[in-house]
Request: fold
Amino acid sequence: MAQTVPDPLVSESGIPDPLLPPGGDNTGQIGTDAVRWAEIRGVEVEAGDLSLRSLDGSKHWKLVEGDETIEAYNVKTGQRFALAMIPMESP
Reply:
C-alpha cells in the first residue's frame, strides 16, 4: 500500500494553513534548484540578504543591507557597488 505524504500547506482538516513555519529558526527551504515557485506575492515580504539568479540558475548578484547603504555584490566578479539612495519628496 502506498504511503501518502501530508501536504504541508493544508491542515489536517483540509483547510489551507495560513502559517508555514520551518522546523526551527533559520532552517528549511521552499522549493529547490530544480523545482521552483513561479511567483511569490505578498503585501510585505521580509528577507535577509537577497540573491538574484539568472534563468540558467547561476547566482550573479546579491543585495545586502548595510548601515547607510544597500550594496549590490557581483558574486561572479567579486565587485561591490553601493546603490544610490536619493531622498524623494513626499507626494
Observations:
- Residues 50-83 form one domain.
